[in-house]
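SEVERITY: medium
COMPONENT: batch folding queue
REPORTER: lab tech (J.R.)

DESCRIPTION
The queue accepted two submissions in a row. Attaching both inputs and their returned structure tokens so the on-call engineer can compare them side by side.

ATTACHMENT 1
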Amino acid sequence: MSRITINGVTVDPLAQAHELETASLVSEDATASNYLLVQTTHPPTAEEKEELAALGVVIHEYVPDDTYLCGFRPTDLDAVRALPFVAWADVYFKGFKIGQSLRSARLRTGLAELVAPMDGAASPEVRTVDVVLHEDVQASEDGLRDRIAAAAGGSVGGVRPERGKIRMTVRDEDLAALAALDEVKEIEEVPERVLYNTVAGNLMHAHVSLNGTKFRGEGQIVCVADTGFDKGSTTNVHPAFTGRVKRLVALGRTSPARTDDPDGHGTHVAGSVLGDGTSASMGTVTGTAPEARLVLQSVMTEDGLLRGIPDNLLDLFEPPFLEDGARIHTNSWGPVEPGLPYNQAAFEADQMVWQNKDFVILFAAGNSGEDRDGDGLINLRSVSGESGAKNIITVGASEGDRPQIPTTYDQLRGGLSRFPAAPIHGDRMADNPAGMAAFSSRGPTQEGRIAPTVVAPGTLILSARSRVSPNGQPSFSTDPDYVFESGTSMATPLVAGCVAVLRETLVKNGTPKPSAALIKAMLVNGADELKGQYVPTEAGPSPNNNSGFGIVNLRQAVVLPTDAGRAGFTDAKELDQGEERVFHITVPQGATRLKVTLVWTDPPGKALQNDLDLIVRAGGQERHGNMGTGSGFDRVNNIEQVNWQSIPAGEAEVVVRAFRITQFAQPYAVAWRVL
């Protein structure tokens, strides 16, 4: 028997069949709704999907477990229920529609929420929410805005339609009426966003060359969404960016348009991506892609907040992709509240990459790591919201290498309560590059996915200082043009620069349009396990929910023509339900291990919509992605890795198999290396 979990509400429709009937939650037909939940006994075959379609069932999205949210205009539910592969079917319950944070103070069973969503919620609290519509509904439909406004007890003027959703301010007591509208798929609270900030290149092996030619990001355009850039000019720029600022865009301060950076965060982030500076007192200060070009979207408003972030993130991502040729977009901000579930912003990030498969999006994991129970270990499950999207690269922070700087974790804001116990309490923030930054947010995501994807140095990172920042002479830096900062904000742009260099190597060596999945697979495959600095280790064997798949090692991620026979990659075409594809790798005598990583850009949705399996066979043995030596399969992540220590010499067979395809056939990428 399989449970259905949507927005934190769980029901087992077969085990609880009698309770559902008693609660009048079993529908005789579908006259009340155009949307169904259909639970199947197995992933439907192509023929079985055709049977559903013949009855008018249109699959929209997979939800765990074994269930599909579907459009359904007819009314005959019995015909759907009679299909031999359908275990259960009913209309989409309105109790599934209300997001977890809107119900956070209410301790009720799943069934109670389904019977009476928000029953007794008479709080006068007003919240800003996104009313997300079903995929076959347009926000501009006749009368829809009026009905939504009426359900919320307000005027139509307070309703802001965006593609696929409507943003508005509502009272708790109106949520049930909104959920009762059939066009509404779900309602989620809009989180407040903040910046994620509180020598790295060598630690990441970010210097790559071939036959004397260095790869430094030439030809790559990176977009940074942040507070602003230096003086807000593309010509009078900080000396670390001369000749490489392509465009500055004002999204926050628009009347008049301003893109300068009095906060300093955006300039520091941009410097970590592609700065190329020299300081008389601090030496060379470069980002990881010092020949890339910059597009910066200033999302800071006059009050210093990040209210310039568009309501729909597609409006953040699409312009630099379409107008500037940017193929890398890096974001060092996210929700204030840790541990939020996959939200509409995460959906929009996944949607952007799904629709534009060569666009790489990076998000900082967040700085919500803390030792709440005082046991000397950082608690899990603090990655939040869009940082938990499937198709992005989520970046956590490891320690930098500045042992001479005495700052300790308990000296951070709130550090005494966040890090009350040894070995973190009193530990210097940048004295051990093998260690995790204590503040770095940990996974898994609320949906169970591994997070972060990778880590990079994020403590006491030296980068460019905005020349309009009012903060005076920065601590520990002897040059006013450069400043030390810490946070996953600092780790993320370092990885973005590595992505630019990795993309440059692919373009210049015969792969003109590498997919985001390929770049992610190569980056992950090259990462080194982060050993940790404490006993027991705070990181652990990769993959894990502290350091993800490890610390970026760009030199090992890149595959150059000189690596033939020792490393390779493929950007492969689609697989459909039940299909598989095989290739072979020769493992020479004396090799210590084979590392293979599978990544696919999954259709947007909270759960895996398409589920592929990675299988490696050698010497009569078999390994499955992310399962170690176990015989099971990963049904949660769209990154799967086999890291086979002491693999038998000879021929290894690599299989990629489509276990479940929900709607669309699935392209994928594989990277491998013999070590």
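ATTACHMENT 2
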Amino acid sequence: MPDLPPLLTIVLEETGQLDRESAMYRRLLAARLRLESQFAILHVEKPLTTAGISQLCEEIESKYVIFMRTSHLLSANYVSTIFEYLRTRTVYLAEPVVYTGAIAKNVAGTKIDEAYHYSRDTDVFGVAFNTRRLADALEALGDVDRSAIYISYRMYWSIAKVKPLNTGFSMASDTKAAIGLHITGEASRLAPVIPTSAKEVRLHLLRYVALFLRGMRGQKATSISLSHLRELIRGFDLIDLLALVEPLQPFEAAWIRWLDDPAANKQFYKQLSDKDAYLVFRDKADSEENALPLYELLFNEEILTIERCYLARNLRSGHARPGSYNFYNRPIGPSSTILFFDRPLQADDNAEHLYEYFTKNHPEFNQAYFALNPKSPDWERLESKGFKLIPIFTKEFYEKFLVSDLVVSSQIYSIRYRGKSFANSRFVYLQHGIQLNDMSDWVLSKYFDVFVATGRVEADYMSRLAPVETLNSGLPRYQSLARNAHGQQHLLFMPTWRFNLHQSSSEHFAQSTYFRAIDKLLSDPALLEFLEDTDRVMHVKLHPNVEKRAGQFRFSERVVQSDLSYREAIRSAEMVLTDYSSAALDAAFIGTPIVYYHWDAADFFRDQPYESRLDYVDDGLGPVFSEHAEVVEHIIQEGFADTDPKFIQRRERFFEGVDPARINEKIVERMLSL
């Protein structure tokens, strides 16, 4: 009797080395041991495309096929649950509960509502397709991008509803929400316009359109036409569901409103104190007077220009509508409630430093609160300093937010409560770092009344995006930052993170260029000998995403994983070495030499959700090295101790406009005038 084909094939897309020690891969192998000949694993070394998937469907003999990557996450019962369901019936599609972050402990308790369907990733991964039916559909859907196959397949076979099985699958990353989708140039439409009233499918399509538009801001050109986008938005009544887009993708929500009604080319975006900010969409060459150009994008053969302009509030329709509360009505004064916060579990950033200055110098404002998680190690410290603390993201916090006249934070969160959000209320964004890279797509997606910049270079960049909102004052924490030249000094190494290493197993991480470059430096014999001979210690501040892997690095008596705060580590540093971390600019601000080590300069920005803006060689505030031997030689020759006029001039230009003694004062003046 000939061998029967397996019931299920799992196709693993892994363009690099297959991570055979990942939790996901080990679970697949364990499942294959139990299911033996009924379950196959196929490793594909090329990125999956629509044409590639179509070809695979012709070659795979199994009745069902699932696509995934080893970076994804699975519930322990994922394969067994899917398999048991498939072998008892014939279906077109079977899927788990799909997550972007951690899989819920109680998958069955996950609320499958509109918010779930909108946020659910719509790529091909994690669901079981009927192989034959997928091949049939792709004969008609061959001109859509791979990332649209799932939605298009459901439209093609009129699959209105899918009840997820009681198991979980996670993409283990939500970077798409930040950077959007970049679809292939071969795709000529996002999805087929096959009529459906199914809200579930329409919600999936709405998210897909929003992510496509977000990706277009970076991709700049596509074969998709504006007329096709309008056909999708109108044909599926996506405008009726737009409230789901607004909170996290307000730029794209305004874009979709214009696509639905091209005559309304000025789309209200953000209320400000004395005027409003608008996005202006034009598919013709003319431009709005005094408008700031943001994007010029090519849709098939049609150019779309997106601009920003500011108009008087009384020009906005309905601005004085009865029944709508204006959160700008009351001027900021001593009776105002003002909310400050940094990260939920960590203070000691710009909001804490500004709050301390503000409450000390303006005691008449007795309703200024600092929000923090009570479990934070900073809670007791701030409480002893007399901070008025409230638990962040609790009912008390949201009630304070509702009555507040101003929110001041080093972080941007999408806070909405009873009709109030940063779209219609005052918000001062202090930042955590400095915009070294091209973060314009991210910046333009956020609401703020004031954006605190640090120096001429950043302020010039920000003024091209938000000139009314930009304030060149410097970061509050800089006002009290000073070098500790009298205590025990050390060398400091602060490498940043690489997004493509999320979910890597220990073995896979150890084989990465990132790990090998850092570990080679930490254990370099010449460096260790230099540190011993000069009685120095190199402190290493690993990125929070790497701290759990600290045990894999070869630390020693002379190269230690630092337990100092970032602030103290920088204050006491004789020299700061980094790859791309903007935290090194804190050191540059107080005159500490900084050095860049770019071991992966050719590939770094390829895997990051942003692009380079600063030319480190021509504009960096310290020397740049790309080779291990060069950076070690620079350290052991104490090149960092030599004062180079070139870097002094660059530092002065970079921080131009910042008065270290008036940073907090300038910010407070601006925020009280809103």
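NOTES FROM REPORTER
The radius of gyration is 27 Å.
No errors were logged for either attachment.
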